[in-house]
Structures
1.
Amino acid sequence: MNALTITLGTIGVLLSLVCWFAFISGALKMVNTIRVGQPAPDRWRPFFPRFKQMVVEFLAHTKMVKFRTVGWAHWLVMVGFMLGAIVWFEAYGQTFDPKFHWPLIGNTAVYHFIDEILGLGTVIGILTLIYIRQRNHPRQPGRMSRFSGSNFKAAYFVEAVVLLEGLGMILVKAGKIATYGGGHLSTDFFTMQVARILPESPELVSVFAFIKLMSGMVWLYIVGRNITWGVAWHRFSAFFNIYFKREDDGGPALGAARQMMSGGKPVDMEDADPDKDTFGAGRIEDFTWKGWLDFTTCTECGRCQSQCPAWNTGKPLSPKLLITSLRDHGYAKAPYLLAGGRTDLGGDEVGLVDAEGNPNEAKLAKIPASAREESGRKLVGETEGLLEAGELAPVIDTETLWSCTNCGACVEQCPVDIEHVDHIIDMRRYQVLIESDFPSELAGLFKNLENKGNPWGQNAKDRLNWINEMEFDIPVFGQDADSFDGYEYLFWVGCAGAYEDRAKKTTKAVAELLATAGTKFMVLGADETCTGDSARRAGNEFLFQQLAQQNIEVLDGVFEGVEQSKRKIVVTCAHCFNALNNEYPQVGGNYEVVHHTQLLNRLVRAKKLVQVKAVGQDVTYHDPCFLGRHNKVYNAPRELMEASGAKLVEMPRHGERSMCCGAGGARMWMEEKIGKRINIDRVDEALTTNPAKIATGCPFCRVMLTDGVTARQEEGKGEGVEVIDVAQLMLESISRVEAAKLSDNLKVVQQPKTPVEVEETAEEVEKERVEEVEAAAAAPAAPKTTGAPKAGGLQMKGGLKAPGGPKAPGGAKAPAAEAAEAPAAPKAKPGGLQMKGGLKAPGAKAPGAAKPAAPAAPAESSASSEAPAAEAPAVPKAKPGGLQLKSGLKGPGAKKAAPAANSAPAAPAEEAPAAEAPAAEAPATEAPAEQPKESAIPKAKPGGLQLKSGLKGPGAKKAAPAAPAKPAAEPESTPEPEPESAPEPEAPAKPEAEAPAPPQAKPGGLQIKSGIKPPGRK
């Protein structure tokens, strides 16, 4: 050591204290700012899978290597930064003593070799990245650069520091070899060559060490003062962002959209309160802390931007710039939020207020003026004209927000697992549910979904039109089959597949292929409703939950009694596939869902579909975003194309990097007013392969691509090119089967339940009915259930009830009436048979069709009628409303309800005359609440059978006759019917005419205006 080295060392230590303080202060400020976000309790566990994924993604660079050159260069820089820190800290000693090295390990061959590799690798890696950045500099015309909009000042600073660090490692080591000798070709192969040109000077070694140390210290100071420099901070925050990613299995945040959360809990729209709950993100503080971590971690590499279909076609949306705008706004507003500032929905201060609720000016004055000004900035809104007027523009422009197609390319490519799509959907939710500010085209979409159950606004009955165009019979649930027994798949046709002429060709092809292979399937027909994908992606979470709950009611009714592993659904629409498979489990619907390309490919492998004539044409395949990126189904469609004999010609962008068609994110229903149309851009790429056909696996993609091809053909391009579904290629290659054979292949003979099963089930439902009656009698405060139900929960336009709401009480008796009756199980509730959700049991017919049972007919003597009365509880005797299963299903084969007399507890026949006199006086002496009128028993209350969501009950064809349906559970006030009156069907004619039909739903229920009928309705 000498004066120079001691001076350099002392200066280095003192400056490092300042720099470390700045860095640690910045890190703490960043952590406190991130904690401003909403809770996200689902991001912490399970620990080991998350930690494993973080380590794998870090060491293997699984995301970075998708850009090959960038991948290996960044890996070298990353390792040089992390392990190079060991060498960097060594510089503290080397500034004082040039001979210094770490004790024990510093002079070993392994340490020398690692030092050599780190220094050389860091320099090579950073020079490669500098070259790539300059080659893709935004100075290029158009939008070719993925670095357009990135912070170049921060990038250049970081690149310079990394280069100095790498050179410092090399020069310090080479200087020590030049001054003190040593070195070996196996461990110091490069630095030994550099040492030849360096002089022998201990002071020079200390100078190199000081430069290496100070370059790092300057980095700490500058980065600590600029916590929005993601290109620098990501080397720390990326580890946490990867660990806390949405999917704990390591997958990107694709597939299901993130549930709408408030306070860390999913929002049930029926119970939600807009004054207390957070509906999406309308302010920066509405994002979760994971969202803030996303904003902080963005490296501004622009890979998301380079893949974005909106950006590539001239739209204002750049996923990178959207995230960085939210980051800059959040950190600018952070001092106000950290001080306790908050505003309500009207923009009034509610956080920093005095005892009288007025803004506390003293506390507000302590907050920087820039932060107070930023706190009043809108998150989303129109920016045009505001800047010119000198007003504060919103953070995100409205057009930017609605340009997103939800294709997921940004999420797929992001190397630090930022969840762009989830943040965009959250902002859309606030705009739709709170601000009611959305593109005008979406108003028509929402109205059609509310009133008609499909985006096109067509009638529900027209969902069956495509079946009428088929030459063979396709079973429809509720018409040709009353249960799922014997079937393998429920074919979910989807709105496009049922209504859109081009998509119907796919539906027909899939149906014929499945029938040819002997795969037994049924369809829902008019009972099917839109899955709500477009509503959710457009931000209308209320409408999505409503439609989802309605569909789940129907599907659970179809799969009633079917084990979970056999609840199989096949779909042709990629959007339906994603919703049913990934999003319906969030609201209670769990099914095994397969895409038609997957199922058909399985049938090909099983030799149930065999090629007899190869297609033999050049066909290019377009990967639907919601089938490919969102669900990783890439191989099945291609294998199916190969099985058909088509010659696949891939487009430049395919697989994970496939270009969107422009229909996702509800963009199917919106016009593109800025830039080039996305579908035209995709068609132009497809035509570069000179295909005979363009194949796809989604009806939305088919519509968009067909429109694009038509537009280009009008210009004389792509003559003869046709857009088809992969299933149509397969259909062209097989031997077609005659219609009668196809009908036979789909025919299923359903077996009725055995008497033993019926008896056991009837006993179970008997017990449940007794418990229900007793519970109702024990609740005197329960409100009466007659009349229209009260509106509950949030209401939408059109009178739709919030999903999952209370059941419509149309089928329930008034508590007073039930309390007056004996708790006899045979008493059937008005409304007839009911399932859990109000669905009709397989084979069950309306109670109105019941005829008197045989035991009540004999009239020879009281003794002759005594035996049948005593045998009333026997299995063959149907209770009023028919035998019922545990869930409310009527036993198979029980076609007509037994009369009320036989369903009552057995009473001695000789006592019947004694009860006649009081029975005649009952209407005058007993209160109506205790003894209902005779006609009231068979009369269905308004609402009839209803599903949980308010749908009309299936199967009820007419009101039950008064006399047969009257129970004999109250012998002291109700006489036994005369034997000779039993076979007379004319008696109940008047009550039947007066009573409203049981299937009518009460107003306020969850109904689609088109009057969708529930399953089983004939």
Note: Residues 292 and 877 are 67 Å apart (CA to CA).
2.
Amino acid sequence: MSGVTMWERVRRVAGHEGRWLVSLGCWVARRRIGVGAGDRPFGYGAAQAAIVYGLTFVCAVETTALAVLLVDHPVAHLVMLVIDVYTVLTMLGLQAAAVTRPHVLGAQALRLRDGPRMEVDIPLERIESVRYDLRFTKAEKQRKGEGRDDLLELAVAGQTSVTVALREPVTAERLLGRRTEVRTVRFHADDARGTVAAVRAAVAAVAAEAASGSRGAAVGAGDPPPVKGPAVA
């Protein structure tokens, strides 16, 4: 994270907190963030929903238990109540961010997201291949050791299900500002096979459009100059 100051890191963390707080409001309003007309969203929050709701329930039980235990200690009770409520909101906010900030497939780019933590835009013309590829990231790291520098994994509940290989690298920026050039991206989608099919179709459409434009330019360059007819009085 060289080159990133402490204040910049604080600003980024504050931005992260703000994003999940905004996501809570959008979740209640049933709105999605950054999905335009004609874009195709692909969710990824279902895989972690049970874990998040389970942890939220545990936190709520803990909050109730501490409220009873600290009833005779008002200051400690208030401090722990604020901490516990904020913890519950954080858990719900992370799930809300996963729901309201889906992956987005546009006409020219694929935007991949990791809740409020990060997002990376991949131009479709840079995608070499995309395939269904279910992996459990912890098991992969234990089997192969440290991960590659040119690999980005956006895991949900410890798993990825789609692998995208790139012709040219893209820049991924981590939460605290560290930037890496990646050539392979693994991410999770609830409908992984449907996501793969949609991305393949979009990549093929962009390639066909580019090929058509190249042929048109070549034909135009080879056309003879127009012949001027006689002027009409």
Note: The mean pLDDT is 87.
3.
Amino acid sequence: MDDAKTTMAPPVYVVDPPLPPEPFRDCDVCDALARQRTEATAIGDWSKVTDTNVEIGRHHNLSHHGRASRGTL
């Protein structure tokens, strides 16, 4: 008898990707990163889109905006 697998694999759960970080108003760095992300999206460079999302998130976390980094735009 062969050793063929006769049971199903466990289910795979797929979740929605996280929402991209939003740039803060009146922040030149956020504006520049948002522009780069828009340009990357337009040409389908999803790696660059991801990179700019990470950069925006890091920029927010470094508290360059003088206020809480989450939930204030």
Note: The radius of gyration is 20 Å.
4.
Amino acid sequence: MSRPALSLHPDPAAIPRWQPPLEPDQLRSVLAKMSRWQPMDLDAVYDDLDQILGEQQPEAVTLEDVTCRLRRALEHLGNIADADPAFGSSPETAALVQRGEQLRGQSLPSDYRQALGLSRRIALTTSDLIDRLVQERHIKDDDAT
């Protein structure tokens, strides 16, 4: 003989219907943002760092493009560092994020040497922030393992 299934709730009809956490327009906005999200390609960031910090100085034409990519990487890294308030960043990481925000706000000078200097400060901050985030296990660097 089979028995009917038992409910653990005393009155199953009294269970409130599930409601989504957001309104439909808000859910569409979240979906749109998630579809535009791109994972960070650390190998490409390392290539850009090598172009700026390597032994050969980049050409003026490529300097602006590489610096723009490093600014985006620095912003992405800052977002990663600030993403989880439960674990929070160390004071050193927070200082690097703040320095990165200041550097990203500076416009690239028209003089090549000054532009290279700003680009190198951006690159060094990006490199230091990557190292801190790997150390704090916010990101994983496959080359470090």
Note: The mean pLDDT is 88.
